[in-house]
Design brief:
single chain; 238 residues; alpha/beta; Rossmann fold; 7 strands
Length: 238
């Protein structure tokens, strides 16, 4: 990263794009993808598409991205899209951003924690510590108990497969993936403030007491996903 010294936060999108453009790997596609995620959060937390309404937000981005967080493949996106653009945007608009990823990044302005991503990543945070929790590119679009292993990112999938030494079979691996999902969902609920947004693989859920609810901007959700995330919360409490 080549940033130079920056003392101020962006006041508008033109300034923000100028700040982001100083990072290695920046492109218009990087902006569009990350801006879309942040705008989704603004829409659900502040009921506005203006991302600057989030400048006082507290944000946790799990699996925030790194240059190492991809497998070379014709079906994968360009590697620069996997850099931590979302927490960078939050930092540069003035929000409190924390990113967690197991890949290597250079020096970042936001708080970056490097570790294997999973449910344990939340344990350092107190209850109601965040207004927004983003979990993307960790479980693919698996949002029910019917796990399609092909959609789980390779590096995460294989680390789970070998976490106890000898590789496990696919049946046991699916149970391990579900176990991590259960902990991530429960812990996301715990660290979110009331009314906070859990953006889980692109679908926004709103914390409401002991449950999640679908956002009003996304009332249909994905079939079975709301019941699934609430079952995961209850599973660890029963």
């Amino acid at each position: 990263m080549h940033m130079g010294s920056m003392q101020k936060f962006a006041a508008n999108e033109k300034e923000l794009k100028g700040m982001l453009s100083r990072y290695n790997g920046y492109s218009e596609k990087c902006w569009e993808r990350a801006h879309g995620i942040v705008a989704n959060m603004a829409r659900n937390l502040r009921h506005s598409d203006d991302i600057f309404t989030l400048k006082t937000a507290r944000v946790l981005d799990l699996c925030c991205g790194s240059i190492m967080h991809y497998e070379p493949s014709p079906n994968r996106l360009p590697p620069e899209l996997y850099l931590p653009w979302v927490p960078r945007i939050f930092y540069h608009i003035g929000a409190k951003a924390v990113g967690i990823d197991n890949g290597e990044n250079g020096e970042e302005k936001f708080q970056l924690i490097r570790e294997n991503v999973g449910g344990q990543s939340f344990t350092r945070f107190e209850n109601s510590s965040f207004d927004l929790v983003n979990v993307a590119a960790l479980f693919g679009d698996n949002l029910t108990s019917e796990i399609n292993l092909a959609r789980v990112p390779y590096s995460f999938r294989e680390s789970l497969r070998h976490e106890q030494g000898a590789p496990c079979d696919d049946g046991a691996l699916k149970q391990r993936v579900l176990g991590v999902m259960e902990t991530v969902i429960r812990e996301a609920h715990r660290v979110l403030s009331e009314g906070g947004v859990f953006l889980f693989e692109g679908i926004p859920f709103i914390k409401s007491l002991s449950r999640f609810e679908y956002s009003k901007s996304y009332p249909e959700g994905k079939p079975g996903s709301l019941a699934f995330v609430n079952e995961m919360i209850l599973a660890v409490r029963s």
